[in-house]
Structures are given as C-alpha cells and as structure tokens.
C-alpha cells in the first residue's frame, strides 16, 4: 500500500508541477495586461486635468455683450448699435402747376357803369384798353344816352341790331336787350358788320380820343359829332 501511494505521488507530481507553473504564468500575464491597460488609459485621463486646470473662472474672463456679470474696469459695455439716421425729406418730384391767367369773357363781365361797358366793348373787339379808347367810348355813350335811365335796356350806344328776345323802343328800331352780354354782343356785331371801318381803325390804334370821335361823326351810326368828356 505504501509503495503504491509513493508510486502514485511520484506519478502525479509532474502534473501538479505543470499546473502550478501554468498558474504562475497566468498571474504574470494578468499583471502585465493590467499594467498595459493602465499605461494606455493614463495619457487619456491627463488632458482632462490639463483642460480643467486651464479654465479660468467666469468672473475673471473679459466681458462681452452676450455674457453675464459686470464689466471689467476700463472696458465699455456698449453693444455698438449705431443710432438711427436722421430722417431726411426727399426733394419733391412733383412739378408745380403752371401759372394761369384768368381771362374774363364778355358774358362774365360785370357792367355797372359806362366805363365798365367801354372796357368790355374794347376787349370784345380785341382792341387795346387805353385811356384814349375808354375816354372816347364813354363820351360816345353819354351822347347816345342809352341803357342808363333809358328804355333801351343794356344798349348804351343805341344800336338797332336785333337779338333773340330784344324789341324796338322807337321808330328808328333802337333795341332793348335782355342782358348785358346780349347788348354787348349786338354792339360789337354792328361795328364789325362792315360799315364802320373808320371807327374800328381809330379804336385799333387806341392813341386818340379825337380820332375816335371824328370816325363816329363821319359814319352812318347817327350820333354825329359829340363832346369829349374831360
């Protein structure tokens, strides 16, 4: 029995020795693996410490508009927004309306005096409204005596030209008219009918009352010579 046990021990010993050697080798391998892992992980952990140590506290950083906290001494906190430009008024491109001269037509004239009628007659004939012309026509009106304080309404020079609505006031056919425009038109048309060229020429010149008076006196109008008013 003893011999068998020794034999058995002698037989098993090499196996045990191999296992022990393998276990020792395993431990050595594990230790080397852990050392390699530690060596690999170490450089990766180091930058975190460097970054953490390099970061400055917020209050020590320069102030910028998008950060909180107060501005460091000597630095402006203006955001840099420029003030809006002053409003300007663009020059108008609208052209000013041209000035107009109002011309009063005979139908729009207000006639209250013999002078008013003289001016209206000269303008209707297209003659110059001079003091000589107006003076001659006013004197002619006074000599004829129509219109004012006369049945020959609106007819200062007592023309006989018929107009719509007019009627005769005497045997000579002197007309009474319905309005100043009608009486003015009748007088102008009579002068322009062809028999009174001398009167028209004197009025066209507009330089002499005597010339107008002589032209009337020598015409067939019927007034004859008349006194010129001062």
Explain the overall architecture.
The chain is 47% helix and 2% strand. The chain has helices at 2-54, 114-125, 131-144, 180-191, 197-205, 209-217, and strands at residues 167-168, 175-176. It has a domain at 106-217. A hairpin with a 6-residue loop joins β1 and β2 (175-176). It has a two-stranded antiparallel sheet with strand order 1-2. The chain is mainly α. α2 crosses α3 (131-144), α3 (131-144) runs parallel beside α6 (209-217) and α5 (197-205) runs antiparallel to α6 (209-217). The chain is built from 6 helices and 2 strands; from the N terminus they run αααββααα. It starts with a helix and ends in a 13-residue tail after the last helix. The radius of gyration is 65 Å and the shape is rod-shaped.
- What value does the average pLDDT take? 74
Biggest sheet: strands, sense, closure?
A: 2 strands, antiparallel
Give the overall shape: rod-shaped
Q: Work out the oligomeric state of the chains in this entry.
A: single chain
């Amino acid at each position: 029995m003893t011999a068998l046990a020794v034999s058995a021990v002698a037989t098993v010993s090499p196996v045990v020795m191999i296992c022990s050697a393998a276990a020792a080798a395993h431990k050595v391998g594990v230790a080397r693996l852990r050392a390699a892992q530690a060596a690999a992980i170490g450089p990766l952990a180091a930058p975190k410490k460097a970054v953490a140590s390099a970061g400055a506290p917020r209050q020590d950083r320069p102030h910028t508009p998008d950060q909180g906290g107060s501005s460091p001494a000597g630095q402006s906190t203006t955001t840099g927004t420029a003030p809006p430009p002053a409003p300007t008024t663009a020059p108008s491109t609208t052209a000013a309306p041209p000035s107009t001269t109002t011309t009063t037509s005979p139908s729009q004239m207000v006639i209250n005096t013999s002078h008013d009628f003289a001016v209206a007659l000269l303008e209707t004939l297209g003659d110059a409204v001079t003091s000589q012309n107006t003076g001659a026509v006013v004197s002619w009106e006074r000599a004829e005596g129509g219109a004012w304080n006369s049945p020959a309404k609106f007819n200062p020079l007592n023309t006989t030209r018929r107009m719509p609505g007019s009627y005769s006031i005497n045997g000579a056919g002197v007309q009474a008219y319905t309005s100043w425009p009608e009486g003015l038109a009748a007088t102008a048309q009579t002068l322009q009918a062809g028999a009174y060229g001398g009167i028209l020429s004197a009025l066209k010149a507009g330089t002499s009352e005597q010339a107008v008076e002589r032209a009337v006196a020598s015409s067939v109008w019927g007034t004859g010579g008349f006194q010129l008013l001062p």
